[in-house]
Amino acid sequence: MLYPQANEIRMTSKLDGMWKFSNTSQVDLKKPLTHAQLMAVPASFNDQTLDKQLSDYVGTVWYERNFAVQPETLQKRLVLRFGAVTHQAKVYINGQFVDQHVGGFTPFEFTINDYVQVGINDLKVAVSNILDNTTLPSAAYDEKTNHLEPRFDFYNYSGIHRPVVLYTTNFTYIDTFDINYQLTGEQAVVTPSAEIVGPYDQAMITYFDEDEVLLGQSSLGGSFMIDKPKRWNVMDAHLYAAEIKVYQKGQLLDTYRQEFGLRTIKVEDGQFYLNDKPVYFKGFGRHEDFIASGRGENLALTNLDFNIMKNLGANSFRTSHYPYSEEEMMLADKRGFLVIDEVAAVGLYNDFSVNTGISQTDSSTWQVLQTGKAHKQALKELVERDKNHPSVVMWSLANEPAGQQEGAYEYFKPLFEYMRTLDDRPLTVVNISMSGYQLDKVSSLCDVLCLNRYYGWYVDNDDLTKAKQDLAQDIEGWHELYPNKPIIFTEFGADTIYGKHSLYHEPYSEEYQWDYYEANFQVFDKYDYVVGEQLWNFADFKTSPSLIRVMGNNKGVFTRERQPKMVVKLLQKRWHKQN
Ligand code: BDP
């Protein structure tokens, strides 16, 4: 599915703005919503009103708005596209059910010609935020009490989270357009592929460099050589563009422009190579999370976050724990960030709850969870959406599954095999400490070992000497098992309350956060096969209430409002030196 683009053939029109909203179950599809209030789109609905019940709401809510259709629009194919609706959407136009989509973090679209009329049309979207044992993320849901217990540590924000767009094409249209290439030495051979629906007799592709200088042309199915290409590099992005034009008897029927970057990735001998140079990942696990907008797209915030990361000397992040917005991924391409792109497979741990803790003995995850089908679908949608992004350098198939429990290998093996048929980038599953090297059954499938470790916080709290010893032993244990796999720390962190200081460097103080990170860095620096550090978390973020969460997770190195904690100075110094 292509990202919406306006050009000489395609018209786009955004349906973002204030929509009508209601959480009543009584909806007459033929009539406007009654007792509706106004809700901004794109955004989560949870934190836009003062209503606590709505903030914590579990179930289906309704959104509604009108849109206008002109007579000439119906001479075209008319498509309604949602960037993401969390977690399930059922779409109705003029009272008729159009279709539905499950999965809260990937786009979907429907051709709607058969449902619309010239003039004003009514659009209703029923959005459900119920998660259970079959969904990604996973949650324990009790239908009788309507109680939902997330198996993940972030707020279950819901709503129409990303842009809604109406667009037109001709009835012959480009459905997919992917840029494949081989990069060897001083040459790139680019071989785009496209799926075109409807009759056409010619498809041509024109190439441009980043200064819009025309490089040449090829036909679809053919290839094009770029001599001495400027490579896309970490924090030094170069983007080319390919423009496809589809004709019938000389008449232009459709066109689409795709940017692309040229770079190589190789994982070998305990290193991660980008363009044949070992790279060290510096950065964060993040969240799409902010006051009022919740998990809704917030481009100004994304821009600020990227500028802050660059200022710190960071070069990477992980889309913990779900695919981030398409606009954010495009910005990452342009800025040169390395992205570990994660599917929303979080909570694949039957007994996980921030409120109740994890029982070490429970071993029923892979019997209880029925997420396999949703997982495969989510991987497919992720790769389809993101494969053209040069910033994506690795796919993460899950965060902290119960990798030590019986059935974990059998669950993941077919998913890895499936992913390798879709794309050739390195694959990982982010490992939880309960699934340590002695017990884990999944990491043999991974190209890179991504570890989430909390020595000095959940383990060895307030004892950084012991924390360092345990961390070193952990690293060495993994290395002995998998000497050729590089290790990236994808999470490590300590809850830190902004403004709390301590003469005795007590946990929760800004001093402790500083010491905690310094201790971890000292250990990482001893091992050349540790090739990255992504701190948990970039900023404080909202979670469900819990005794161990002081109004959210406070492991940010920035507050939720992006005020820096002390440790930011340490990072700045370390990361700028590390190039
Ligand atoms: C890890 C999770 C992450 C949590 C973090 C924490 O991957 O989502 O927020 O721990 O406890 O288990 O802060």
TrEMBL record:
SUPFAM superfamilies for the chain: (Trans)glycosidases (SSF51445), beta-Galactosidase/glucuronidase domain (SSF49303), Galactose-binding domain-like (SSF49785)
Keywords: Glycosidase, Hydrolase
The Glycoside hydrolase family 2 immunoglobulin-like beta-sandwich domain, residue ranges: 214-263
Keyword Hydrolase: yes
Gene3D superfamilies: Galactose-binding domain-like, Glycosidases, Immunoglobulins
Database matches in InterPro entries: Beta-gal/glucu_dom_sf (IPR036156), Galactose-bd-like_sf (IPR008979), GH (IPR017853), Glyco_hydro_2 (IPR006101), Glyco_hydro_2_AS (IPR023232), Glyco_hydro_2_cat (IPR006103), Glyco_hydro_2_N (IPR006104), Ig-like_fold (IPR013783)
Top enzyme category: hydrolase
Domain Glycosyl hydrolases family 2 sugar binding: 14-169
Segment forming the signal sequence: none
EC number: 3.2.1.31
Start and end residues of each Glycoside hydrolase family 2 catalytic domain: 265-577
NCBIfam families: PRK10150.1
Similarity field: Belongs to the glycosyl hydrolase 2 family.
PANTHER family: BETA-GLUCURONIDASE (PTHR10066:SF67)
Protein's name in the database: Beta-glucuronidase
Organism, as annotated: Ligilactobacillus ruminis
Lineage summary: Bacteria, Bacillati, Bacillota, Bacilli, Lactobacillales
